[in-house]
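Dear colleagues,

For the upcoming journal club I promised to circulate an example of a predicted protein-ligand complex. I picked one with iron/sulfur cluster because it came up in last month's discussion. The inputs are reproduced below in full, followed by the predicted structure.
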Amino acid sequence: MSQNIPGTAKKGIHELGAEKKVGWDEVTQGVVLEPFAEPVKDVAHIRPEERDYTDFSSYTATVASWRVLKPVYNSDICIDCQNCWVWCPDTSIISRDKQMLGIDYDHCKGCGVCAEVCPTNPKSLVMFDTNEDLDVALSQWPEKKRKEK
Ligand code: SF4
Ligand code: SF4
């Protein structure tokens, strides 16, 4: 399995050096943006981290600064159901071979859909302030909810 992926459960914008990446406000208005340096065949069969993106593609440019809240992933509880991967509107759940690996914090916009659809008790994805340290967030994880009698 390739480890050259843009984000994992332990990485955020600073750890990734994403602040060095281009932002959309640096793109000249009205230009045509080519996502790939060369024409690509069967792109759906190539993993994102292995594609030859240009510097101005939706993959290369980070939108992390748009986020107010971020989902934090707790692998101890996750059952790899893939619900979050199916529902994320920004393809920001990193899953390989049906195994949940974490969040792509370069592209996650913090909508909270993944945390909403996560079926575990307690949830394996919980929304925190986007500046919260991941280890601190994990130490504050909610308890299992008991059924009311
Ligand atoms: S918060 Fe929204 S954009 Fe971010 S990983 Fe969850 S569903 Fe995707
Ligand atoms: S929805 Fe929750 S349990 Fe299912 S893969 Fe995502 S984090 Fe894991």
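Two points we might discuss: The pocket of iron/sulfur cluster (ligand 1) is lined by residues 71, 88, 90, 92-93, 103, 108-114 (CB under 6 Å). The chain has a mean pLDDT of 82.

See you all on Thursday,
B. R.
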